[in-house]
Amino acid sequence: RAEKAEVAMGASVLKLLAEFKRCEEELRSMSRDQTTDIFNPKVASLRDKLKRTYLKVLQDSQKANKERELARVLWRDVIYATIVRLRQEQQKYEGAALAERNDSARRDRDCLRLHFTTFLRKSEQFYRECVAAVQESHGSVGVVLPGEDAAKVTEKGAKVLTAKSGYACHSCYQSLIYLGDVLRYEQTHLRPHDKRSFKGPGSCYRQAAYLFPESGNPHNQLSVIYLLTGEDFRAVYHNYRALCSAAPFPTARENFKLLFDRIRARAAEAGEGDPRHFGAQACASHLLWACAELFSLKTFRGAEGGWDQLDAHCSAYLAHFRLLCKLSPKEQRQKLSQIRNPRREGGDASTLAFFVRTTALAICNVHECSRGCASEDPARRAWSEGALPRYLNLAVSSQVDLVRYCARVEGGAKLGLPAVNVFTGWLRHNKDALSRIERGDDRQLEGKFRAFKETLVSVLLDEHEALGGGGLDCARAPLGELLGLTEDVELRGFVPILPAQRGLTFEVWRLAQRPTEGAHRARQRLRRIAASLEEISGEPLELLTGVPTSTRVTTTRVGDFTEPQGGGLPDVSAFREGKANRVPRQDHLGLQATVLDLLCGKKAADQEYLDRHWRGVELVARSRGGGHGEESRKRKRIPGFSFPA
Fold first, then answer.
1. What is the mean pLDDT of the chain?
2. Taking the mean position of all CA atoms in its chain, how far away is CA 455?
């Protein structure tokens, strides 16, 4: 197989590969000698030759680049090895300049800093040339490098990425990762702390994540950036993404300890997280501390107060989250601006992103705890079995508050339903978690989940009617999956946790880069939530097919009825258990609206009654409330039904 691959590569590519290997071995032998000057002309010449050879390979065969791992070898031996040596020299000169305070040491330090700056800028230019070489030979894959204007980038090639773009995407992905690293080192080693900007490296890492979503490497690098800028919430979120990718970053689990140690230190200094004082920063902090319990070795060894700490953090997070969901979108934006976030997201995007990311973190906690339940370590397994119901309760309870927010607040559905879509899509593909929620020992959790489903149905009906009604059958909108919703763009590649993301392939990437919320996307989101809810509940949801949906059913029974003389509709009295029995009587027909629940629900026990009096009658019912007997604050709703002609 290897011989066939070499024949397929062609003689010119094989010659370049042989030249690359020869230069690499020679450079490595010289680098083993730590006394060799890093600015030795022969070493510099070998580095330049390796770069030129690599560029030629990229232009001729990106497949060879991926199979031989040339990019990794080049970064390790040419770029990173030199950066390590320069950092060591810089630290030595910095120490001498401070200790001796002599002009000679300072001159040497400044000279070295100039060499360091020059090397990093040449490396930056090299990786820019690598991306350009790939896009010139293959066609544009949509990469916009730092400093380039997206509107002025020349488009060459297909408008969307296809499976054939795989090698080109991988080559650009590697170049973007290393370009981001070079730009990050320039900021951390050559810029004062108050003048650092990580916009450039962040852009490179995010585009690398889009090009190769299976990899956890870009998310690990983003986590490093957000840790440096003090954005703890994003740092933990992206470290979870690095851990839960198809190709996880090797040290992602170990990195959590460093992350949480720094988060605790910062929180202690700032005095954050007091549950008596509501704030979005405290809300985020309590969620992160609840995450931290999963990665604490003391917890698994039975440290005192382990359960108390987890329960306290979960309760405090839910209390803060519930308060946040009671605010208007404008007030939420003001509260969320308290979270340390130098890279501001404009308008309502911050609220939407916060809901999606908190949902993703809650789901990740459940998955990590489920792994612990299967651990060979008895202490970890025992702790995880006890913690899993707590993490499930945190995830479900926050979703109950979120759907109530969608039902109650004007414009809330636009901000909350993307996160609900993530949660229902996860449960649809995670039968174990669904079974624990619905058939576990925690009756309170089961009740919360039932409340979540009931309120969500009401929200879907409201939003469906606001969009003009009609069916949400996927056959009527075949492009819906390809457009990519906002939450799909945010969570693309999160397949180990969210299997629903498998449908988002290369074709989505360009179309989903800058998703704009509109009626079509909103309808697709409703359709996907409704489909997930239908599978979760095991009951048909008529919203998907365009058939009118009945009002929400709790427990309804038909009382005695008398047939009217001369035919016509019978006079029926109906009773409903629960607080929702607030619908007015339809006096002109002598039929209460609650009976419609029974009629549209098609209960087998009442089939005789239906056959006798209602065969052939088409009923249309509309649910107008906000859930749990609450009246929706969006618009004034009047429950009722009508008989179509």
1. 75
2. 24
